[in-house]
Each structure stands twice: as structure tokens, then as C-alpha cells.
Write a structure and sequence with these properties.
FAD/NAD-bd_sf; 11 helices; three-stranded antiparallel sheet; single chain; globular; 14 strands; 3 domains; alpha+beta; five-stranded antiparallel sheet; about 35% helix; about 375 residues
Length: about 375
């Protein structure tokens, strides 16, 4: 069983229960904004430059894209505006890996097995002995990896050619995992921090802003007694790390990591540097190697001003039986958006293979309309 910790956040929202008619009006009203741009909408109503910069930072924290005129009106940006904090945040005890472990344990507990052949998953054997082999393939690789590496470039569908013209790869991250002595952190330390010391203009610049998570504030079992884990990360392009000798590469990792740690030592936790008992640094090349992401990218960003969020590809592809999921699909990058993409893909596949009901006429019409909208990107 998966255990979670729910921890409150100071901000709370007020909400009302809408009638069916009210919800329908809300849906219709919201649909009006789908093809519009978040940056343009924000600037129609918000004039204070500091508040606009704060909104940019909130959106950047969620998805590494600002809510400016070049950014599509992603669902996650609306989520930021509408207060994502209500009810607190659920944290899986033992870390994020416990979610996958719990799902796998559920299969085993039901006397099911995952079948493997030549290091590839080929199907599932159920407790009653039935075996199922996949005719449906779901790729959670980036669009660039799926169409261009897993599939030959000469077989690239027109829809994917349009995607690669309309979107560019977002930068990757430099990550630092630290083990530190617990007494360097004040007793009331929060789990998540975002550091931008000087100028809003540095928000999107490489190494300009720092993300910090301290999971052991919530779950002490993740580290040995008397210690905390710090995950520090900042945007970093892979180009900064190409063409270096092994010696220069390792030296640069240490140099960049030291600068980031010094900033946190000065701004948040005096004595942090001297309290370190473990340090591991990963670069965009690390992300590319171990996460199999093209250039270590965090996801796609629009090349020019997009025509709303519906220009992004959804879970279906031009190849029958092949689906995509993740940050290269609607509604884009960021944990919230990717989780939503997963839910959508599950429903889409379930409908296509007959596990969920659908209206064939309306469904076909909807897919064609969405396909047409993507041609406008």
C-alpha cells in the first residue's frame, strides 16, 4: 500500500459548488480562451510589472516557461492563477519511486506476471493463466526521440514534421544531490524553495534561478539519522557541456556546483558548504544518457508565438496503434501537465480498444478538428 504525507501550504482558496447549468456555462466560457495566449490575456488585466514578473516566476517554476506573449495558454498556467495549493500537497512516503513499486506490487499480489522477451516487455500473464500481447504501443519518449530515433526519419508523418518546425527543445538542467548534516537547517525549514536573488531578467537565463527541494523535511526515512537530502537544480543548456575533455568536464561540474552551493549558503543556509557529507552532480549530458532524452531536454517550447494550447499534439499519432504521452503532448511540460497527459492517454487508449464507451461519429469528428487545429501551429 502506498502511504502519503499531506502537508498544508499557507495559501488557501475559496470555492463554490456550481449547478450543472453553471458548470456548462463555465465550460463554454473557458473554451473561448483555449485558442488564446496566456501572456496576452494576463497583460490585458494585469498592469503591475512586479506582479507580472511574479506570475512569470510561478509559471516558470511549474514548467520552465514564463507566462509571456510567446507562451501558449497551458492548463498549468491556469492552475497557477487559480491557486494550486488548496488542500495541501500529497507526498509519497519513501520517495516518488514508491508509486511505481506499489503498482508493480499490486500486479504481483493479484498473482499476475509481467512477461519479458529479449529484454523487452511483450505482454501480461494474468492470475487465471491468460496471456495478452500488445497491439498498442505507448511511447513516453520525447517527440524527437520517438519520431527520428525509434522510428526512421524518412517515415516521419507530416504532423510530426509540423511539430518539429513549431517547437524547439527546452534547455536541460544541472542537478546537485547533497547529503548534509541536519543541524545546518533550521527546525521550521520548508520542503521547497526557489531562489532568484537579484533581477527578474535572470529568471530564464542558464543558472539564473535555483530550484531546491528537501524531501527529508517531510520523510526522514530517506536519509540516515542526523542528515538531510537536498536536491538543487537549475536550467542549463547541453551546449555548455559539449566538446570538453573528461578532466575539463569534471572540473566544470565542480565549479558550477560550488557557485550554486555558495549562493544557497549565503541566501538561505549559512554553513551549508561546510556541512556537506555527500555530493553528486549531474549535467544535461547525464539527463541525456540516463533518461534517454534528446539533448537532455526538459520538453518542448514554442518556436514563435503559438495559437493557443490546442496546437500541441495530443496522444494519438498518424501511425495506427502508436500513442505518445508526456511533455511533448498536450498540455506540455511540467509535472502537472505530464500527469494530465498520462490520464488523457489512458482514456484515449481505453476508448480505442473498447474498454470505455465512445461515440464513433463524434470521436472521429473531434480528432479531425484537433488535427486541423494543429496545422495552424
Amino acid at each position: 500500500m502506498l502511504s502519503v504525507i499531506c502537508f498544508p501550504i499557507r495559501l488557501h482558496s475559496r470555492f463554490c459548488i456550481l449547478s450543472c447549468a453553471g458548470r456548462m456555462r463555465l465550460v463554454i466560457h473557458s473554451a473561448y480562451y483555449l485558442p488564446q495566449n496566456a501572456g496576452n490575456i494576463a497583460r490585458n488585466y494585469v498592469k503591475d510589472p512586479e506582479l507580472l514578473s511574479f506570475i512569470d516566476a510561478e509559471c516558470f517554476i511549474v514548467s520552465t516557461t514564463k507566462c509571456h506573449a510567446e507562451t501558449p495558454y497551458h492548463a498549468k498556467h491556469g492552475n497557477v492563477m487559480c491557486d494550486r495549493h488548496f488542500g495541501g500537497i500529497n507526498y509519497p512516503v519513501g520517495g516518488i519511486g514508491e508509486i511505481a513499486k506499489s503498482l508493480a506490487k499490486g500486479l504481483v499480489d493479484q498473482r499476475s506476471e509481467i512477461l519479458y522477451k529479449a529484454n523487452a516487455t511483450v505482454g501480461v500473464k494474468l492470475s487465471d493463466g491468460r496471456q495478452f500481447y500488445a497491439k498498442t504501443i505507448i511511447s513516453n519518449a520525447t517527440r524527437w526521440d520517438t519520431f527520428g530515433k525509434l522510428l526512421k526519419k524518412e517515415d516521419l508523418p507530416e504532423e510530426e514534421k509540423r511539430f518539429q518546425k513549431a517547437y524547439v527543445k527546452a534547455p536541460s538542467f544541472l542537478s546537485i544531490h547533497l547529503g548534509v548534516k541536519a543541524d545546518v537547517l533550521p527546525p521550521d525549514t520548508d520542503c521547497h524553495h526557489f531562489v532568484l536573488e537579484d533581477d527578474w531578467e535572470n529568471l530564464e537565463k542558464p543558472y539564473g534561478s535555483i530550484f531546491l527541494s528537501i524531501p527529508t523535511v517531510l520523510d526522514k526515512s530517506l536519509a540516515p539519522e542526523g542528515n538531510h537530502i537536498l536536491h538543487i537544480f537549475t536550467t542549463s543548456p547541453i551546449e555548455d557541456w559539449e566538446g570538453l575533455s573528461r578532466k575539463d568536464y569534471e572540473a566544470k561540474k565542480e565549479l558550477v556546483a560550488e557557485k550554486l552551493i555558495n549562493r544557497l549558503d549565503k541566501k538561505l543556509f549559512p554553513g551549508l558548504k561546510s556541512s556537506i557529507v555527500f555530493k553528486e552532480v549531474g549535467t544535461p549530458k547525464t539527463h541525456r544518457r540516463y533518461l534517454a532524452r534528446d539533448s537532455g531536454t526538459y520538453g518542448p517550447m514554442p518556436r514563435t508565438t503559438p495559437k493557443g494550447l490546442l496546437a500541441m499534439p495530443f496522444n494519438t499519432t498518424a501511425i495506427s496503434g502508436l500513442y505518445c504521452v508526456g511533455d511533448s503532448c498536450f498540455p506540455g511540460q511540467g509535472v502537472i501537465a505530464v500527469a494530465f497527459s498520462g490520464v488523457m492517454c489512458a482514456h484515449r487508449v481505453a476508448a480505442d480498444i473498447g474498454l470505455e464507451k465512445k461515440n464513433p461519429v463524434l470521436d472521429t469528428a473531434l480528432l479531425r478538428v484537433l488535427g486541423w487545429l494543429r496545422t495552424l501551429a
